[in-house]
Description:
Elements: E1 2-10, H1 15-31, E2 35-43, H2 57-65, H3 69-85, H4 102-113, H5 117-131, H6 138-147, H7 152-160, H8 165-177, E3 185-188, E4 192-195, H9 200-214
Amino acid sequence: MTHIDIDIVSDIACPWCAIGYARLERAMEQLNPEFEFTVQWHAFELNPGHRGEGEPILPALARKYGRSEDEMRVTQNQMMTIAKDLGLNFEKMQERFTCNTFDAHRLVKWADEQGLQTAMKQALFEAYFGRAEDVSDRSVLMQCAESIGLDPERAGEVLASDQYAEEVRADENTYQGAGVSSVPAFIINNKYLISGAQEPDTLVRAFREIAAEID
């Protein structure tokens, strides 16, 4: 059996990160049982300087990318269609507000110690894109923790402290320092970089090529 380590650099506020992981899951399913995969998530903030109340997502994206709100709406609609085909809940994607994701990343680090890192990431994606919830709000984050079977009170204690803040910052510094400037980014066996939300078949081919080099 070929073992593949996958380090995923992503942000909770990145729709392509949710899509990219769903496509990765399909690729991993195709390669089962001849391949064994280990997945580790790493923090990246698309808007690290975000403070205060959020802004409606469409005007925020239009300003950021120098495009019209109508153009951004079309792009978001396309992503919603892709997400639905992958079984993802993006129903309220266009109703969400910008927000800071630092605390959410801290909660993912905590969930990792309980063996539920991916489950937490998926719960956060669904909260943000499926229900347009504020994933910087501690009550929302506690509900996400509870939804995957973790103790919400313990989650609240983590969030009220500065636990895992150093780990999140270390992730950000490490991968930005390594040249990762956009997400999702998939680092394979600490050697190969796959950028963006690639289609499952593309990932399958890439993993087979990497396996051939290992052999």
